[in-house]
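Onboarding guide, step 5: your first structure request.
Type a short instruction followed by the sequence, for example:

Predict the 3D structure of this protein.
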Amino acid sequence: MEDFVDSRLEPLRKNADELRDKQDYKGAFDLYLRSLDLQDSIQQNSYFQQISKFKAENEALQIKMENEQLTLRSHELYLMILGLALFCILLFVLLQINRRLKKRLTKEKEKAERSDHLKSAFLANMNHEIRTPLNAIAGFSQLLVEEEDPEVSKQYIHIIKENNELLLSLLNDVLDISRIESETITFTYSKVSLPDVINGLYETAKLQIGPSVTLQKDSAPDISIYTDRHRLVQILSNLLSNAIKHTTEGEIRIGYDWEGTEKIRFFVADTGKGIPKEMQQKIFARFVQAVESHSKGVGLGLALCKGFVDRLGGEIGLESVEGEGSTFWFTLPCRMPDN
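The system replies with structure tokens like these:
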């Protein structure tokens, strides 16, 4: 701009100087005035240009600030919407958790109430079952004192002995159930020959079955495992007693299978009454048989079997068709002894 101003003013000033040198003062004065007017005009235009530039820059700055404020408000709105969405999600999750907790608490309450009911029924049944052998023992003991016939006395002694064994077995089962429930039961592991166990149970069970029932033991590999012999015998004995109790004709089979896997499968199969389908799901539950079974005893045998098998690291189950028979099976870890 300064170069532009000089290029327009310089000729006028030069001409004014020349007129002044020629003593044409009026002409020189006019040219000086013209140069001053031109300089004022140029400066005024420059001033307006600067004002226009500053105005444009100010408008641009305002637009930029408005855009930034709009962006900031958009971010604030976005964050507000996001926060509201997260709050709604959190509220939904909390409501779902609360609903599930209420549902679980309701189930646990119902389960506890059922358990209390079953335990009450179990205790009532236990009271009856304990009184039965005690009354027999007390009654026949009194008769034995007064009886003079040796043969009749012998019968009384036999009845007293049977009821003593029944009472002892009942109390042992209750104690085992209590130990399982409180997780204080202990196991004694040792080398156990499976053929010896099966043969021993087979010989004992032969004396208990009726004439119309055949007892068979399946051939199996001669192996030994590392487990609790007493509990293994107790499980198989309970399953055998259960099969004998419910089988009046046909056969009962006992044995085990092993195909080189990590588990050995034991089984007791019979052609007895079988178990109704609706009972199969709860046949191993504690106290259930005590309420629903009408046979001799409180029905703790299967509950004990499940408790022992679970703590020995195995599984237990059954396959049954009502009127055709049942097969009870369980597995144990195949831990071979070192020697």
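Each response can be followed by summary notes, for example: Residues 190-333 form a domain with the Heat Shock Protein 90 fold (CATH 3.30.565.10).
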